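Hi there, hope your week has been kind to you so far. Please have a think about how the structure follows from the sequence. I've dropped the whole record in just underneath, so have a look:

_____
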Amino acid sequence: MSESTTPRPGALGDLRASGWVSRPVKQEVRENATLRIREGAPVVEGVVGFEQTVLPQLENALLAAHDVIFLGERGQAKTRMIRSIVNLLDEWMPIVTGSEINDDPYAPISHHARVLVAERGDETPIEWVHRERRFGEKLATPDTSIADLIGEVDPIKVAEGRYLSDELTIHYGLVPRTNRGIFAINELPDLAERIQVGLLNVLEERDVQIRGYKIRLPLDLMLFASANPEDYTNRGRIITPLKDRFGAQIRTHYPLDVEVEMDVVDQEAVVTSPDGVRVAVPDFMTEIVAAISQQARHSPHVNQRSGVSVRMSVANYETMVANATRRALRNGDDEVVPRVSDLEALAASTAGKIEFETVDDGREEQVLDRIVKAATLETFRSACSPERLSQLVAAFDGGLVVHTGDDVPASEYAKLLADLPGLPDALAELEVGETPAGVASAVEFILEGLHLAKRLNKDAIGGKATYRGRG
């Protein structure tokens, strides 16, 4: 965070003289969102695939100054969107120095700030907080208490000699401490119903009451929440009065096509190459990884209520590259290019991210194998022109046999160029270049695609395979 070169007012009188105007947080967010929309910029950053569906609804909610609840399965960027809303706050905001609840210098609400302003007037010291400090977040769990969210009597302060009736004995919870900011509750249905009742006043009357004290804190908040739709009936539910107080309920979704899934993978995947090794992932390998998730979301053997998170695509991509890197390190190669044989490694990164609709031992591996093959065939059909491979198929029908696998060096694949007619044209179509590692990746992809298209036979043992003609 870089501070402005212009000094900010340090006292209440200087703040008034500067012309600074206090705005409710929802007005602040609405006006900053308006500027972004007018400039054609997205209201939230780092979210792919929601441009025509979710984001227009979110923009409407922000312009209408509504509290928002996002409904969607796991891995649908709900939390990311909520956290990105913080960027719609002003970068810096003045508060009364020492305030625990971000008191507005013009309209303080805590006992500390009211007394300080009354005693010192225009000399009241002011400090500035960055917008990052104006965001509060709580993962709802069954053991979350009212004290966590709203506040509780602090026994230490009582022991210091204050009376229980003294407002200064209160230890504020997360919600008051996010006054004049944005507060988010993730997995809202997991919050006990009696605790949800405590949020009713926050959302409608905009105040909190603690332990029956005769105090009222008129909080200035914008509230966001997230929930899995299944949680309405499974793990818990959102009580009807609380749902009614949210101004907007927005349904999120997974990427609608392979191209968007690939964009998400390219954005989110973290790939680190060892020193002296270059990593290059062909588009068709990224597409296979994305298509695996797309296939899983339509498979009757996968629990769709649980969902298939985009995190699976990201983890599979990283695992595929890691397996290719391990092979390159063992073989002493200076270039890492994933191959179809690397897809064998995805079982580990996929297993914990999808729930299968089968209880038979071993069936999960069969279902996953069918999903990977379907994704590979779909990608092959979209990436390769069948007419360019007729000569190649004819060569196999004439007795050609090719061995592939982790144990085959990239240089061996490059030697096949002279034996496989039509292969150079196919490689040019796949745009993998002429390096041995790139050729190896393309050869395995083409051979596996021809096998899945029932134009070649394949004998496979582990990560090794032998391709031959069907004659």
The first helix runs from residue 12 to 18. The CA atoms of residues 166 and 386 lie 82 Å apart. The two ends are 68 Å apart (CA to CA). The domain at 12-251 is CATH 3.40.50.300 (Rossmann fold).
